[in-house]
Amino acid sequence: MRLFKEIKSLQNFLQNERKKSSTIGFVPTMGALHQGHISLIKKSMAENPISVCSIFVNPSQFNNAEDLANYPRTIEEDIKKLVESGCPVLFLPHEKELFPKNEKLLDADFGLFTESFEGKFRPGHFSGMISVVKKFFDIILPDHSYFGQKDFQQCMVVKELIKKYALPVRLHICPIVREPDGLAKSSRNARLTPEERNTAVIIPQILFSIKETFHQIPTEDLISSSLRKLTAHSPMVKVDYLEVIDADTFKPTNRDTKTKAVAMIAAWCGNIRLIDNMILTD
Ligand code: AMP
Q1: What is the pTM of this model?
Q2: What's the confidence (pLDDT) of residue 60?
Q3: What confidence score (pLDDT) does residue 21 get?
Q4: Of the candidates 26, 28, 27, 39, which has an alpha carbon nearest to the alpha carbon of residue 185?
Q5: Closest residue CA from atom 6 of ligand 1
Q6: CA dihedral sign of residues 74, 77, 80, 84
Q7: pLDDT per residue over 104-127, tens digit each?
Q8: For 22, 26, 100, 118, which has the most beta carbons within 10 A of its beta carbon?
Q9: pLDDT band at 22; cut points 50, 70, 90
Q10: What is the mean pLDDT of residues 75-86?
Q11: Pocket of ligand 1 (CB under 6 A)
């Protein structure tokens, strides 16, 4: 695996690769890699002769200093996992080179896609996220980019970013990889205590049960009974949001919909905030 820390050296390498008429696939991550990340890298590798994985814990997308300080950083293990997966290129940029001092972040102004859910609960998050993603797109010039449905709202915001700047990159949204008990794999899972980890399984359980009964029960009732189940499960659970929306517009929707509906959830299990979602109309 080739490892690049400087923008210019990565660009020189990719320029040569592009001459061989290779397409470039790109998977941005914040490290603490797990099977969810590796699934994106494998998909990129299957579809492109050259794939670049980036690892960068982007301070500007954290609205909470404690969350940033505690975010797991496991670079040695990450490198091992990437080598094992066969990933050809790792980009490990320096923060100072990526974000020179006083640089302004991009405005994240995409209506409901940036105002609702994570936009509401994590002010500034999407502005930081799109600023770094746009930067990576401009540096790497990937033909294809791979994001996880795990961060469904992020995918929709990146879709809007690509549209706004007419970026020549295709967005691929890849399925959520889950633990055997259904919990979505996440770098933050490593920070759950055993008790919090046991509690967290209620999140996918609720999503699966919403999916199962989506067409039978009025959506409002389904949401209120799910909220009751979540809070009754453990005093550790605090729900930031649980809603059913139209996947393409982010407007509230219900069981009569003819379009794609998705259930979105964010909940705290003790000190750790987890997000998950599920398409209900497959
Ligand atoms: P992160 O390192 O959390 O910023 O995630 C990097 C990429 O991996 C994002 O596109 C995430 O949506 C994706 N990802 C994270 N967890 C999963 C998962 N469990 N399954 C699939 N993709 C995931």
Answers
A1: 0.97
A2: 93
A3: 76
A4: 39
A5: 29
A6: negative
A7: 999 999 999 999 999 999 999 999
A8: 26
A9: confident
A10: 98
A11: 29-30, 36-37, 39-40, 147-148, 150-151, 174, 176-177, 184-187
Q: Whose CA is nearest to atom 14 of ligand 1?
A: 148
Tokens 């320029």, located at residue = 15
Query: Regarding beta strands 50-55 and 144-148, do their DSSP bridges make them parallel or antiparallel, or are they unpaired?
Result: unpaired
Q: Specify the DSSP class assigned to residue 123.
A: T
pLDDT digits (tens, 9 = 90+) for 83-111: 999 999 999 999 999 999 889 999 999 99
**Residue 46 burial (C-beta neighbours within 10 Å; 0-12, 13-18, 19+):** exposed
3-state SS, one letter per residue, for 178-224: ECCCCCECCHHHHHCCHHHHHHHCHHHHHHHHHHHHCCCCCHHHHHH
Tokens at residue 46, please? 């299957």
Catalytic residue status for 215: no
Segments of the chain assigned E as strands: 2-4, 24-29, 50-55, 89-91, 144-148, 170-174, 237-246, 261-269, 272-279
Nearest ligand 1 atom to alpha carbon 146: 10
For residue 179, what pLDDT is reported? 98
- Residue 30: its pLDDT value, please? 98
Locate 31 and state its tokens: 């490290």
Query: Residue 152 burial (CB < 10 Å; 0-12/13-18/19+)?
Result: buried
Give pLDDT tens digits for 38-69: 999 999 999 999 999 999 999 999 999 999 99
Question: How many CB atoms are closer than 10 A to CB 184?
Answer: 23
Residue of 34, 35, 37 with the most ligand 1 atoms within 8 Å of its CB, for mutation: 37
Residue 74, classed as helix, strand or coil, is coil
CA distance 127 to 62: 10
